[in-house]
Amino acid sequence: MSKAHPGCLFCRILRGEIPATVLGRSERSLIIADIAPQAPLHALVIPARHAADIGEFMAESDADAELADLFALALAFAKEKNIDRTGHRLVINTGSDGGQTVGHLHLHLLAGRPMGWPPG
Ligand code: 5GP
Ligand code: ZN
Fold first, then answer.
1. Residue 46 near residue 58, CB atoms below 8 Å
2. What is the reported pTM?
3. Tell me: the pLDDT tens digits for 28-59?
4. What percentage of the chain reaches a pLDDT higher than 70?
5. Of 4, 41, 108, 109, which shows the fewest CB atoms inside 10 Å?
């Protein structure tokens, strides 16, 4: 992590200050169970580097490798859970219209039921 961001919920989880159900990790990302699951399987893939959203995240020079790491961890976990076959949904909520409630970029991995479209 480049900076402390003491008040950020996901930075605090990354530092182990707040407990979470850790489902896996990579060099640059952590995957945890969502505390309020919206599907039988609902995980959050969180980059170690704090960025408020995808725009801020992509502005850094090393973002391509970090983004690849984030998706690689999500897809490795999907494979581990055999939902690469049944299907799943990857979501990045951004800003107020996007429904973002935690200001540290994260990727939702949802699976275990058919997903509706359009999303609410
Ligand atoms: P967003 O609304 O920003 O796209 O997603 C934030 C997600 O974080 C929500 O799905 C919410 O349930 C989850 N969440 C909020 N607080 C906690 C927490 O303390 N622990 C965990 N594991 N998930 C949380
Ligand atoms: Zn953070």
1. no
2. 0.97
3. 999 999 999 999 999 999 999 999 999 999 99
4. 98
5. 4
Ligand 1 within 6 A of 32 CB? yes
**42 part of the active site:** no
- Provide the domain count of the chain: 1
Q: Residue 109 is inside which H or E element, if any? A: strand 107-111
What is the domain extent for residue 67?
Answer: 9-101
Are 66 and 74 a contacting pair, CB within 8 Å? no
Task: Name the residue of 21, 44, 110 whose CB sits within 8 Å of the most ligand 1 atoms, as the mutation to test its pocket.
Answer: 44
Of 59, 119, 74, nearest to 93 by C-alpha is 119
Distance CA(107)–CA(45), nearest Å, equals 5
Pair 33, 20: CB distance under 8 Å: yes
How many A from CA of 9 to the centre of ligand 2?
A: 6
